[in-house]
C-alpha cells in the first residue's frame, strides 16, 4: 500500500516554471525569478538568494543581510573509486545546513524521500551519476548508454531537462554544443572510412575551437560531437533541423557542386547550412584543420572575401591559422547568447 509522506502542491506558470509551493493549503515559498530561479520568499516573508556555479548548481544560500544560511559543494567524480561515479552528490564535510536547500545540483529539486533530482523528463541519481530511466531521445544517442548523464561530461554540459544538449549561457560559461548526427544504414549511411574521417574532424575541431575565447566576461566552451543514429532520425532532422546537424555521404551533394572538382574521388567535405557532406577525399590527403574549417561553416561562418589567399581558418591559404578569438567573436555577435537555448544556423559553403 502506498502512503503519501508529504502533501505538497506546485503552482506553475504557462512555461512550467515553479512559481509557488504549498504544503497542504499553507504556502511554503514563492520562487524569485530573474534570468532563472535566483531565490525565494518564505512563508514568513523573509527572503533568500542563491549563488550558483557555471552549471547552475546552488552552492550558497544567503538571507537578506547577506549571511550564509546554507552551503554545499558537489562531487564531479567519474572514476569508479570508493565514491563510485558520483556526479552532483554533496561532498562529505563540505556542506553547511544543506537541508535548507530545496534545489541542488544544476538547480534541480532534490526529493528528500528518494534523494533523486527531478529534471522533468526523468529522475537523476547523483550517488551513481546515472539516470533512473532510459534516455527519452534514445534513437538519437544509440552509441552511448541511455542512462549516462550529460554524455559523461558533467563539468561542461548541463543536461537541462534529461533530454538533449543545449546552447546557452550558464553562469560564467557560454556553452556552444554542435551535435552532428550520422547513420550507417542503407539510405543515408556513411562508409567506415567516412565515419573515421568525421570522428577525426570532430576531435581536431574540439581541440582547435576550444582555445581562449570569452563573451562579456564568460568563458566560451565548444562541445562538438559526432553521434550515430538511424536513417529515420536523419530524415527527421533533414526535414526539421532545429539546430541539429547531419553528416551525409557524397551522393547527397548536388551534382553541380560535385562537377566543380576534376576527380570524383578527390571531393573534399563541404557544408550546406546544417548538412555536412563527407566528400570522397581520403583522410591522409586532407588538411589537418579541415574539421575546424567545416564546423566553422556549421557555426555560421562564411568564407572571407579573399578566400583563396586569406590566412583565416575559413579561408583556403596553405598557411591559414587555427581558429582565433575573432572567429569566436563573429559567431557570438551573430547569435547573441542568452540563458535559454539558442540555435546556430550554418552557411552554404560547399566549395
Share of residues in helices: 10-25%
Q: What is the name of the CATH superfamily of the largest domain? A: Collagenase (Catalytic Domain)
Strand order of the largest sheet: 1-2-3-4-5-6-7-8
Could you state the order of secondary-structure elements as H and E? EEEEEEEEEEEEEEHEEHEHEEHHE
The strand count comes to 20
Largest sheet: 8 strands, antiparallel
Mean pLDDT: 80
Find the structural class using helix and strand composition: alpha+beta
Report how far the terminal alpha carbons are from each other.
67 Å
Integer tally of domains: 2
CATH topology of the largest domain: Collagenase (Catalytic Domain)
Outline, from the CA principal axes? elongated
Strand content: 25-35%
The gyration radius over C-alpha positions equals 23 Å
The CATH top-level class label of the largest domain: Alpha Beta
Low-confidence stretches: 78-85
The CATH architecture of the largest domain is 3-Layer(aba) Sandwich
> Helix segment count?
5
Name the features.
5 helices, 8-stranded antiparallel sheet, 15% helix, Collagenase (Catalytic Domain), 20 strands, 351 residues, 2 domains
Topology:
Blueprint: E1 8-12, E2 18-23, E3 26-33, E4 37-42, E5 47-52, E6 58-63, E7 68-76, E8 87-96, E9 109-110, E10 117-118, E11 123-125, E12 130-131, E13 168-170, E14 173-183, H1 192-209, E15 214-215, E16 218-229, H2 231-239, E17 245-248, H3 255-258, E18 270-272, E19 275-277, H4 290-298, H5 325-335, E20 348-349
Parallel strand pairs: 14-16, 14-17, 17-19
Antiparallel strand pairs: 1-2, 2-3, 3-4, 4-5, 5-6, 6-7, 7-8, 9-10, 10-11, 11-12, 13-14, 15-16, 18-19, 18-20
Amino acid at each position: 500500500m502506498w502512503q503519501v509522506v508529504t502533501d505538497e502542491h506546485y503552482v506553475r506558470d504557462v512555461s512550467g516554471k515553479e512559481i509557488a509551493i504549498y504544503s497542504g493549503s499553507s504556502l511554503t515559498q514563492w520562487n524569485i525569478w530573474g534570468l532563472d530561479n535566483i531565490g525565494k520568499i518564505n512563508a514568513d516573508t523573509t527572503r533568500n538568494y542563491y549563488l550558483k556555479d557555471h552549471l547552475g548548481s546552488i552552492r550558497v544560500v544567503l538571507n537578506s543581510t547577506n549571511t550564509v544560511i546554507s552551503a554545499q559543494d558537489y562531487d564531479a567524480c567519474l572514476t569508479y573509486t570508493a565514491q563510485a561515479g558520483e556526479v552532483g552528490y554533496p561532498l562529505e564535510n563540505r556542506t553547511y545546513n544543506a537541508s535548507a536547500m530545496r534545489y541542488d545540483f544544476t538547480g534541480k529539486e532534490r526529493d528528500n524521500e528518494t534523494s533523486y533530482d527531478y529534471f522533468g523528463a526523468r529522475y537523476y541519481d547523483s550517488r551513481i551519476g546515472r539516470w533512473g530511466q532510459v534516455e527519452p531521445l534514445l534513437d538519437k544517442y544509440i552509441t552511448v548508454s541511455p542512462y549516462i548523464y550529460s554524455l559523461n561530461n558533467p563539468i561542461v554540459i548541463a543536461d537541462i531537462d534529461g533530454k538533449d544538449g543545449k546552447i546557452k549561457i550558464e553562469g560564467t560559461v557560454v556553452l556552444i554544443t554542435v551535435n552532428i548526427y550520422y547513420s550507417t544504414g542503407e539510405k543515408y549511411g556513411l562508409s567506415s572510412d567516412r565515419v573515421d574521417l568525421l570522428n577525426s574532424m570532430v576531435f581536431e575541431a574540439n581541440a582547435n575551437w576550444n582555445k581562449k575565447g570569452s563573451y562579456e566576461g564568460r568563458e566560451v566552451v565548444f562541445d562538438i560531437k559526432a553521434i550515430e543514429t538511424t536513417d529515420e532520425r536523419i530524415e527527421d532532422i533533414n526535414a526539421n533541423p532545429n539546430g541539429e546537424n547531419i553528416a551525409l555521404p557524397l551522393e547527397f551533394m548536388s551534382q553541380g557542386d560535385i562537377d566543380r572538382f576534376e576527380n570524383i574521388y578527390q571531393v573534399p567535405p563541404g557544408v550546406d547550412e546544417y548538412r555536412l557532406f563527407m566528400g570522397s577525399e581520403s583522410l591522409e590527403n586532407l588538411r589537418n584543420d579541415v574539421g575546424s574549417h567545416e564546423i566553422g561553416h556549421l557555426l555560421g561562418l562564411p568564407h572571407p572575401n579573399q578566400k583563396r589567399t586569406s590566412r583565416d581558418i575559413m579561408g583556403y591559404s596553405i598557411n591559414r591559422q587555427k581558429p582565433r578569438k575573432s572567429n569566436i567573436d563573429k559567431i557570438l555577435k551573430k547569435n547573441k547568447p542568452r540563458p535559454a537555448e539558442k540555435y546556430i544556423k550554418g552557411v552554404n559553403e560547399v566549395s
